[in-house]
Design a protein that fits this description.
The complex is a heterodimer of chains A (290) and B (151).
Chain A: H1 3-25, H2 29-34, H3 43-53, H4 55-59, E1 75-78, E2 81-84, H5 101-110, H6 125-128, H7 133-143, E3 157-158, H8 167-175, H9 188-196, H10 200-203, E4 221-222, E5 229-230, H11 242-251, H12 263-271, H13 276-287
Antiparallel strand pairs in A: 1-2, 2-3, 4-5
Chain B: H1 6-28, H2 33-57, H3 64-85, H4 99-102, H5 104-122, H6 131-149
Helix pairs in contact in B: 2-3, 2-6, 3-5, 5-6
Classes of the chains: A mainly alpha (290), B mainly alpha (151).
């Protein structure tokens, strides 16, 4: 290859990269449409959505005595650096107390903060973006009832070059696949697992850029935020009955009567409060994976 | 051909069981003997949970004496847990978090909680219907510790 061709390729590469970076600054259409709209949600359903989405699994603060203390602080060691769950309590100074509904909506649907900066996908917006609008409104209504906790968030400790948030715009363009894996998302079972439960965020392996390997859906992989492995929950590997899965989601007990550990303990705390119907739907989704 | 004596049969059975046990752990690939010992302790705990769990699922299998023995055994094993984890031993197969040794007092306290719960439950299981609440109480105790100290 001659020198001029190499330079042309380089310039073209830079052009594509710049175009992708620009794309990352354009807020998605759905976020723009909802920017000015404020809604009144149902906090009772919001509490249920809160549990199903496991918001407290990551954002729960150290002071467990305070109910729904969302001051964060949980540490997630990843190949890209250390993430600390931020304070998302109703504190105006340290949390999200000054947010509007559209700020909240955009964070879940587009993965951006009120200033339009991208969130790292350690916050599972790639799943939460599939949450229904009415459920987001209800969740926000419930959030208003939660306490303000005056503890500052710990800044993330991210390695170069991932510490440049604008680069996440490129990541979103290249790796954020918004399609559902099972069906079109209309089924509640898919909604519970792929949107609210965001089970794949841990139970599906990731590529070197941190994107989910959708062809290895729910088949486990190395722990994205700690040592060891996250087990497969795909029926090809996990030989549990639907009844076994429901029991685990209710009590944390495996068919061998081992007890859940690590992050799954707080997941179980939430799933145990779901209706039997929803737990059955989750079990059916997992059981029917092919 | 004369039958082997009871003593010989007994010794042979013990040796066979020990061999099977060691092979099982060889398959698990745990190399550190301290880690292996505490994993055996935890798996014994799970075996006793299984005794209670199976009876809770199938009330026809309810055996009050056996349930009580399992609960007492869980209490005994949880009493031994802090000692089993006292030494900071590691192995790639270990699921123990480093927090066990940085927050050992809390780890000890949670082990003691399980011991107290299991002892109290041992005296309270009278009918098969008592088993499910007992199982849930025990699993809550286990989760209280696992959430902080197990991967």
């Amino acid at each position: 290859m001659d020198l001029s061709a190499t330079i042309k390729n380089l310039v073209f590469g830079l052009f594509v990269l710049s175009a992708l970076s620009l794309l990352s600054f354009i807020p998605p259409a759905d976020a723009q449409q909802n920017k000015m709209r404020e809604v009144r949600g149902d906090p009772k359903n919001g509490a249920y959505v809160f549990r199903a989405a496991g918001c407290n699994s990551c954002h729960l603060g150290k002071d467990k005595g305070l109910k729904n203390n969302l001051s964060g602080g949980e540490e997630f060691k990843t190949p890209f650096g250390i993430f600390y769950a931020p304070n998302v309590s109703m504190s105006e100074k340290y949390g999200i107390g000054k947010w509007t509904y559209s700020d909240f909506y955009r964070s879940l649907k587009s993965g951006v903060n009120p200033e339009g900066k991208h969130y790292y996908p350690a916050f599972p917006y790639t799943s939460y973006s599939k949450i229904k609008e009415e459920d987001i409104a209800d969740l926000w209504a419930f959030w208003q009832t939660l306490p303000a906790v005056e503890i500052p968030s710990k800044p993330h400790d991210i390695k170069f070059p991932f510490n440049f948030r604008w680069s996440l715009g490129i990541w979103k363009t290249l790796f954020w696949d918004k399609r559902h894996v099972v069906g079109d998302g209309g089924a509640r079972s898919t909604y519970l697992v792929e949107a609210l439960g965001h089970c794949a965020e841990c139970h599906t392996s990731r590529n070197q850029f941190g994107a989910l390997n959708r062809d290895k859906w729910m088949r486990g992989g190395s722990n994205p935020s700690g040592k060891g492995n996250i087990p497969s929950i795909h029926p090809k590997d996990l030989k549990w009955s639907k009844k076994d899965i429901i029991e685990y989601l209710t009590t944390g007990l495996t068919p061998e009567f081992d007890v859940a550990g690590g992050q799954m303990v707080s997941v179980i705390k939430n799933t145990s409060k779901l209706t039997l119907e929803d737990k059955t739907l989750i079990a059916e989704y997992l059981f029917n994976l092919r | 051909m004369p039958y082997p004596s009871f003593k010989i049969l007994f010794c042979f059975s013990v040796m066979l069981l020990a061999l099977i046990g060691s092979l099982a752990f060889a398959h698990d690939g745990v190399k550190n003997k301290d880690v292996q010992a505490r994993m055996v302790l935890m798996s014994n705990m799970a075996s006793n949970m299984k005794v209670i769990g199976k009876m809770a699922r199938n009330p026809a299998e309810f055996d009050r004496k056996r349930a009580e023995e399992a609960l007492i055994e869980i209490a005994r094993l949880s009493e031994q847990t802090p000692d089993a984890f006292k030494k900071e031993a590691n192995d790639p197969k270990s699921e123990a978090k480093a927090e066990i040794w940085t927050d050992f007092d809390n780890f000890k306290k949670l082990s003691e909680n399980l011991m107290v719960d299991a002892k109290n439950l041992a005296g309270s299981v009278k009918i098969s219907q008592n088993l499910r609440p007992a199982l849930i109480k025990l699993s809550k105790s286990c989760k209280g510790c696992h959430s902080k100290f197990r991967e």
